[in-house]
Amino acid sequence: ETMSVAVVTSERLVGRDMQPRVGMTVKLTEQAMERRRENGRQDPSKGGSGTIVKIHPNWTVDVMWHNTKRVRVGYACGTAAGKVRAFHLALVADEFGDRPETEWNR
Predict the structure, then answer these.
(1) What number of H helices and E strands is found in the chain?
(2) What is the C-alpha to C-alpha distance for residues 21 and 69, in angstroms, rounded to an integer?
(3) What are the C-alpha distances in Å from 77 to residues 24, 36, 90, 103?
(4) What pLDDT score was predicted for residue 4?
(5) CB atoms inside a 10 Å sphere around CB 21
C-alpha cells in the first residue's frame, strides 16, 4: 500500500464532495493557497484548521480559524448561477475517518 503523493486529488472539497454544514472542520485548499500566494496575501488560517460558522446562499461560507480565533468571510464552495467557482475549503478528516470528535456529532 503506497502513500499517494498527489495530495491535491485526495482533498475532500467542500461544495463538491459534500455539502457545507455549520460546524464542519475545514482547511484551506491548495487552490486557495495558490491564489493567496499569487495575490501576495497572508494565509488567514496560519496553517491550521477552522470551523464553518455561517453558510450563505451564494455558495460561500464564513470560517472561524482556530489559530487566530478570527472569523473570515466569503470562502468559495462551488458554483453559482452556472459560473464555475473555486473550491477554497477542504474537509479535515481525522485519523478516525470522516467524523472528527466535536460537540456537533458526539
Answers:
(1) 2, 5
(2) 19
(3) 13, 16, 9, 24
(4) 45
(5) 12
Sort residue 38 into left (φ over 0), alpha (ψ -120 to 50) or beta.
alpha
Query: Is 14:2 a contact under the CB 8 Å cutoff?
Result: no
User: Torsions phi, psi of 38, nearest 5?
Assistant: -60, -40
pLDDT in tens, 39-88: 999 999 999 999 999 999 888 999 999 999 999 999 999 866 666 678 99
Q: How far apart are the first and last CA of the chain?
A: 32
**Spatial strand order in the sheet of 60-65:** 70-76, 60-65, 50-55, 25-28, 89-91
pLDDT of res. 71: 97
Q: Which alpha helices (H) appear in 1-106, and where do they start and end?
A: 7-10, 30-38
Rounded to two decimals, the pTM is 0.75
Q: Which is more confident, 106 or 74? A: 74
Q: What is the pLDDT of residue 6?
A: 45
- Retrieve residue 84's grid coordinates: 464555475
